[in-house]
Design a protein that fits this description.
Helix content is 49%, strand content 22%. By secondary structure, it is α+β, with helices and mostly antiparallel strands. It comes from Neiella holothuriorum.
Length: 361
């Protein structure tokens, strides 16, 4: 059994059957919980290999927490902090992405994990809240003890170009600074994605001409021949991916078939950090690789086959929603079942499982 795939599939089932959870990314496979006033912004991602599986519970979409993690790392002069929590057995991780706890699922059966999923999420929530509160208190105490400076005002006044220069220096990325156009151009090698020139690399442009926002985009990510591939088919694919990945924008130029992805970081009166830039750059690369393999390579070569695959993706999502609604509709009825009825249902499910696994081993 491929453990990483097994737990990725399990997270998909959990997202489909539990309200408030949805698939966020597929590489790594990640589900996220809707944000509300009573719950942390939590995501769960599967990492590992055929023989190992670790599940990471991350706090996401909170720049304040990312900034707090950066302060903790700076105070301790470390790039990453990892330690085991003896009470829960989970591993606490603080890095440039923020706060997370990791669960080693290598020696845990899928059935046992499913049973303890709710309690594990509750434990992760509690531990993350404890870690964040402790970090907040520690940073507050250190800031109160240190002499007051005008660091915050200096950070706000710092030009965007300076922050971007700092980012490229930290990551040691080669880039072209086109000052007259107020933008940086750089690129990455890819393993799956092939650009319109036939090369395995993707270009990223960071445009800082608008002082209210920073825009990251991928010009000429694809070039479609609209005489061969229907505009409406590509538009449907764009709508699907924008539904799956809420915060990105994709555009298709009907005059020349150029498709590009863009993501904006609103600034307003706030400050910009290199960690924010890196998270989005990393996402763009992962998104490009994953969606090229999933659909775009087929859209470029065989529009008929791509249309069938896209229909399958849409139908699959509809089926998941229908299944989730059905589960919700029978919850109350299930509570009133007799023991005989419950045993009969369990027997049917066991029979289905044995039939589905018959060809696997």
């Amino acid at each position: 059994m491929n453990l990483l795939q097994a737990y990725s599939d399990l997270l998909s089932v959990i997202a489909a059957q539990n309200d408030g959870w949805s698939v966020k990314t597929k590489s790594p496979f990640t589900i996220s919980r809707e944000i509300d006033e009573s719950q942390l912004a939590l995501s769960i991602s599967a990492h590992g290999s055929e023989t190992k599986a670790h599940l990471y519970f991350n706090l996401y979409d909170d720049d304040a927490l990312t900034e707090l993690a950066a302060k903790v790392l700076k105070a301790q002069q470390k790039e990453t902090i990892q330690k085991k929590d003896d009470d829960s057995g989970l591993f606490i991780i603080i890095d440039s992405d923020g706060f997370a706890v990791a669960y080693d699922a290598t020696d845990v059966s899928i059935e046992d994990f499913t049973k303890q999923f709710d309690s594990l999420v509750e434990t992760a929530d509690s531990l993350l809240m404890k870690v964040v509160t402790s970090a907040q208190n520690a940073i507050k105490e250190s800031e109160e003890a240190a002499p007051q400076t005008n660091e915050a005002s200096q950070a706000h006044a710092q030009p965007l170009a300076k922050v971007l220069e700092q980012y490229f220096a930290e990551k040691e990325y080669k880039n072209s600074h086109q000052e007259e156009r107020e933008r940086y151009v750089f690129g990455f090698s890819t393993t799956k994605y092939i650009n319109p020139k036939g090369d395995q690399n993707v270009n990223v442009v960071i445009n800082y001409s608008d002082k209210e926002l920073l825009r990251l985009e991928t010009p000429w990510l694809y070039q479609f021949d609209l005489d061969k591939t229907e505009y409406s088919l590509i538009a449907t694919a764009i709508a699907w991916f924008q539904f799956e990945y809420k915060f990105l924008a994709m555009s298709l130029d009907p005059s020349d078939g150029e498709l590009k992805v863009s993501i904006d970081i609103p600034l307003g009166e706030g400050t910009l950090h290199t960690t924010q830039i890196h998270r989005i750059v990393t996402f763009i690369i992962q998104f490009t690789e994953a969606t090229y393999e999933e659909l775009f390579s087929l859209l470029l070569s065989d529009s008929q086959a791509a249309g069938k695959k896209l229909k399958g993706l849409l139908d699959g999502y509809k089926d998941k929603v229908d299944d989730r609604r059905w589960v919700e509709s029978v919850k109350d009825k299930m509570q009133s079942l007799t023991e005989d009825q419950k045993q009969a249902i369990e027997a049917i499910l066991e029979q289905q499982n044995s039939e589905s696994n018959r060809d696997g081993i």
